[in-house]
């Protein structure tokens, strides 16, 4: 019996044609050649093929970034930050290699300025090893920040952040977030 080509209609990826091997026939998978017997023992792993593996990697990367926002801005969780951030993490906005300890220090500093800081992810897109986020942060300006005295007013700022993920850890960040503009507006208003 020979395998056949069929179309996949799963919503997790675009409509693709892929080869579905017949029972006992070897099939090429990202991990190398796998027999039909391997697929029978572990059907979830082999059921959808490479296209599903790629989309599930993208979803895992997005889940990691989403969890990172929760562990930093929304609910400071140092243990989660240790698990999420690679030791070699480089923050391009800060121009420094921070690692998990540097990330925790940065967040603790922000939490002193905005004790009730909360972020909402408005858009998230993943491609390859990158995750792009458009987000909105809200908090009350309770302490001086980069020369701007505390206004004790609620502030809101938005921005775009790009993350690079490798081996299940956050490795790099590029951010464009206008915190100072929001603080100046609050102080003037």
Automatic annotation (TrEMBL):
Gene Ontology biological process: polyketide metabolic process
Among Pfam families, the record links this protein to: SnoaL
Q: Which domain of life is it from?
A: Bacteria
**The protein's name:** Ester cyclase
